Amino acid sequence: MAKQNLTVRLDKEIIRKARMLAAERGSSISELVSRTIDEMVSKAESYDRARDRALRLLEQGFHMGKARRVSRSELHERR
Fold first, then answer.
1. What is the pTM of this model?
2. Domain range list for the chain
3. Which of 22, 49, 55, 74 has the most CB atoms around it within 10 Å of its CB?
């Protein structure tokens, strides 16, 4: 996948802590940020797929056995 540079402005204290964190992990700040954003995007895409699948299932409805399907008005019929 082609890479492209991105400029990000952060507080100096955050940059200092990020350098320390990256060093502890044997990484660079750039790699740390890249990996974090990649994980966030992957989770968002995964959530979107799951939501779309759930909505399709809800639209189809669920068959709850052999009983005939009853309309809403029949269910709430007053006697």
1. 0.64
2. 12-75
3. 22
